[in-house]
Amino acid sequence: MQSFRRFCFLRPILVTISHSPGGPLRSSNTVVFCAIDDFLPLPGKPLSGFLEFLDSLSQSSIPCVWVSSRNRHQLDASFRKFGRGEPFIAEGGSCVYLAEDYFHLKPARTVRLGRFIAIPIAKAQPAAAEALEILSQQSGITVVPLRSLSPRELMQNTGLPRSEAEATRQRDFDELFFFAGASENDIGRFRERALQQRLLVRSRPDGLWSIAVEASLGSCVRELQKLYARAFHRPAFAFALATSRAPEYAELFSSSDRAVLLRDRTESGTEASLRNARVLPLFHPDSWTEAFKFIERRQF
Q1: How many Cα atoms are found within 13 Å in the side-chain-facing hemisphere of 92?
Q2: Percentage of residues of the chain with pLDDT beyond 90
Q3: Which of 213, 237, 263 is the last residue of a domain?
Q4: Would you call 177 helix, strand, or coil by DSSP?
């Protein structure tokens, strides 16, 4: 894999195509949907090779859409730090966020959230906060929303410094919480009741839980595929990338044309149920090079 300059701001590729008909055209119609939370941990350094992988995609004019359980404030900080400009999907499939001038043709149904144009899929807050309270009362299972904690309690429960912990609970759509003394059976009943009410309850790698009203990662992917297809003037080919620890990887893979699963060697049995997926070892030094080759050439 070649090494490219990393920290320059990436101008929106599609705007260049839209406004410069005489310029170089994109040779690929591939769009990568990457579940980034395991690759850019909070706090911590990026996983070795991941930033070079992003640079290689950019050099090949392949957009990389970040998919995350984090909110727009957290992702915006990472975007500025690493010089990204593509759309992203936040809060576990709750919303698509776009830079205002990224696409020449604007989506039909949008709202402005901060500096972004947003395509909401889930219902906006306080819908999730209210749903969590009602669901807790109906099930008799005690939950503790993150927004109810003091700054000290928030730091203790997230394991993050104060500023990062505070940013974690600033949600546009979903509500973060944890169970208080609930058994596995209790949690199972809670999730089953949530599903009956079209509520998405999802566990997170940090030990917290999230709840959203009508969130759908698949709908987010389809919304972006339509926008990219208009820009490419042909169907967009969705390529998913995630670790097997990402809570959304199965839904992300089922919504994509091809996928790469990065799996720890200690894990097993995850690839049997995956459609059109290639499995690579998570910490092998050649895995990012191999993943880039699969995406660029669509070789499996």
Answers
A1: 26
A2: 76
A3: 213
A4: strand
Residue with token string 């995630």: 242
Looking at every residue in the chain, the average pLDDT score rounds to: 88
Structure tokens, 274: 């995956």
Domain that holds residue 41: 13-121+216-297
What's the CA gap between 134 and 142, in Å, rounded?
11
Q: Strand, helix or coil at 185?
A: helix
pLDDT of residue 57 exceeding 50:
yes
Domain boundary among 213, 229, 259: 213
pLDDT tens-place string over residues 178-229:
999 999 999 999 999 999 999 999 998 888 999 999 999 999 999 999 999 9
Residues contacting residue 294 through CB under 8 Å, at least 6 positions apart: 258, 260, 278, 300
Token pair in block for residue 264: 């720890």
- Judge whether 60 and 99 are in contact, CB under 8 Å: no
Residues 189-220: b if buried by 16+ CB within 10 A, e if exposed: ebbeebeeeebbbbeeebebbbbbbbbbbebb
Contact 107, 117 (CB under 8 A): yes
β-strand partners of 96: 89, 119
Residue 100 is encoded by which pair of tokens?
């205002």
What does the radius of gyration of the chain's CA atoms come to, in whole angstroms? 19
209-213 and 199-203 beta bridge pairing: antiparallel
The CATH number of the domain where 223 resides is what? Answer: 3.40.50.1000
Residue 53 to residue 63: CA distance in whole angstroms = 12
Q: Which residues pair with 210 in a beta bridge?
A: 176, 202
Separation CA 287–CA 279 (nearest Å): 10
Asked if residue 223 and residue 100 are part of one domain, the reply reads yes
